[in-house]
Design a protein that fits this description.
single chain; 924 residues; four-stranded parallel β-sheet; 18% strand
Length: 924
Amino acid sequence: MEYKETLNLPVTEFPMKANLAQREPEILKKWDDTGLYGKIEEKGKTRPLYILHDGPPYANGHIHIGHALNKILKDVILKSKRMEGLSAPYVPGWDCHGLPIELQVEKNLGSKKHEMSKLAMRRECRTYAEKFIAIQRDEFKRLGVLGDWENPYLTMNYEYEGLTAAELAKFAHNGGLYRGKKPVHWCSSCVTALAEAEVEYADHTSPSIYVKFALQDDISAAVPALAGKRVYLVIWTTTPWTIPANLAIAIHPDFTYAALEVNGEVLIVAEGLKDAFLAANKLEGNVLATFTAQVLERKRCKHPFYDRDSIVLLGEHVTLEAGTGCVHTAPGHGQEDYELALKEGLEIYNPVDNHGKYIGNLEFFGGQSVLAANPAVIEKLAEVGALVGQANITHSYPHCWRCKKPIIFRATEQWFISMEANDLRKNALEAINSVQWIPRWGKERIYGMIENRPDWCISRQRSWGVPITAFSCTACGEYLADGAIMDFVAEQFKQHSADIWFDWDAARLMPAGTKCPKCGATEFQKEMDILDVWFDSGVSHAAVLEPNPKLSSPADMYLEGSDQHRGWFHSSLLESVGTRGVAPYRNVLTHGFVVDGAGRKMSKSVGNVVAPEEVIKKFGGEILRLWVAAQDYRDDIRISQEILTRLSEAYRRIRNTCRYILGNIHDFDPARDAVEYGQMPELDRWALHQLELLKEKVLTCYGEYEFHVLYHAMNGFCTVEMSAFYLDILKDRVYTSKKGSVERRSAQTVMYRILDTLVRLMAPVLSFTADEVWGYMPGEREESVHLAEFPALRPEWKDEQLVERWERIMKIRAEVSKALEQARVAKTIGHSLDAAVAIAAEPELLGFLKGYALELPAIFIVSSVTLAESLEGGCYVAEGVAGMKVRVTAAPGEKCERCWCYSEELGTDSEHPTICPKCLAAVK
């Protein structure tokens, strides 16, 4: 008889080799062909809603590894919420307006751009954005992200543009919108104002100069020691180009100031900085007097090279961190300078044009680029004897996010949303407290930003965006930002797109009969600035969540990179609180940035950029998904070939566990063959206890977004509890027992439940593999794992006393394994089934082992086990189990042809002389 035919060997068509790069596109096609996402939506119709609102990526270029991280994280959360029994629709979006696209289109057009109207330029930008939306959509889908890809939201859709304009109108209605001259971040290269979120900080070398301003008013009545002396206030600055715009010097009302006699002159600085000032300028001086700041309040200094005063003012913003405690104040070039000037009634003076050059009629420097003019200003200061000292300093300096060039702070006429009108700042800070921030430090970060931010500058001097729908009277110049008129324009945008602003004349855009409220004239000009793109994306809660019947607002979750505390989280919060009084989100989760294996920032110049496409070609999208889950996303996330290779090995272990179980349940029908819990051997019940622990841990991890803990739990379960213990011990029972025996069916029942649980638990992360395995599983089930739910908790499967017993058995097994290894090295045995094991132990342990005497050979995977009170001669003395000795010898008897165990009872059955009694029972 061919006994191999009587064994229950694994049978499955599930492929061992994953071949992910080829198989994943086939699975994606199947999802598309079967309308999987539509079925998910249909199934969710009667369920509670969970809304994760997609922060729109920019429609420019191919996706990068940070995009992949972000989209996969969102997909993992949404799939887990669906499997928890919620309806979790996913409407992806794209940010379509803004400078990067406009500059790229200008670059592509070359000299043709000068011949094009704004309207024609906008059409080119729209076409460009459409091209990259199509490219990125396919790249995101390739990651296994399920969503309504055919109906995404685009900030350039007509309806969205109209709703954006309507949201702006709300600020006009409530008085939050105003036009004013204020210092803003200004990029002279891109010729536009920049939002806080469009500013990046990088090291920059600037001149550091100390300048003396002659005090014109006599203070000797208050400070007699200064009578008859030449007195100067000394300022420090790293922006010499702003000296021509100086109108004042700020000192702190609570600081004490010192008059230092240096080279026959008196130099006034803060007492707390006098030593640092003298050292920095290699000067020696003695203190003539100290006095309060009030002595200098509103006294007049003389500008170093212009015939005008520089007034001394008290300002709380002055610090003792660096400089002199006397702060150069140019109201047109600094936020604190501007605020002090407003309070004191100074002019907001800005002698710099849109291109970053001094205005033509500025004495000494007219027409010069300001950042290039630093040497000329320093030379002039030296010429007039006002330069006390100079050096170079490397410091963090603001740069344009797009062109990467240094920017300036410059007062211009811009449109703003007030942080104080309607208590926007106060209400936004209160709203922050009502949101759960994950990680928790996100709350402090955004709170500090909102608490200290200036008014929101929402105007941009470009073409590609939603226009600021205000008008100015051609007769008197009065600006008209009227909510009702802006609502009227917004409705037009919904029908015809915002392009009509650049096509139609003002009269056609306005309601008939509109008159200037100031002079009564009826002719108007259109405002040609466009909205900050952060306002565009910041209204998505209003333009996407509120109108779509499948969605709702506020969202349950906003999830983006940690830079969005000053970007999308920030603008969305201000827009929603400013128009609705509530935050647009209940939870905000942030992830770090992707860095290389050494922790360095990704950079083309360094050559360490990892593209998603390359990872997918080599490893498959599944490994990218596993990479996202395996890292603690709250910190910066490392990626390298070594990390991906290690994850591929972990993936292989999980896949092999699934394949092994599939092979062993090929003839199992859960409805017909399942064994009740009470009929199961202890080992099987131990496995179900471990499975229950895994379930609890993984489901908690999904609920708390702790995906790296989930990955380690599942990887450990497959490697340790399953492969190294349970499935290893089970082989003999599953392969050699009678096909329909309770012993085998019990093992199959447990393996089936393990696999069913594993596949459901891993589906949000390993979405391709889980669905592939699902298709090979026996029993009635949903057509896709992504239509199924997480496994139910079965607390009745937990048995702590049983687990305690088996923990003891596992420790004993580990000691036996060491003894077997020694015997293998000594050539006493080859395979462990060649061995007979004898164990001697103290009475209590021996009694415990006798209770498992029949099972010990299977547990140790040996042919026989004998238990004794003592063993003489050479033995292995257990290190981890007190009082236990192990002896390993070659197993007596003959090797069973069927199970390969040695037995002294072969030949007792003439019909089957070469097999052992255990196998005899299975084949008869």
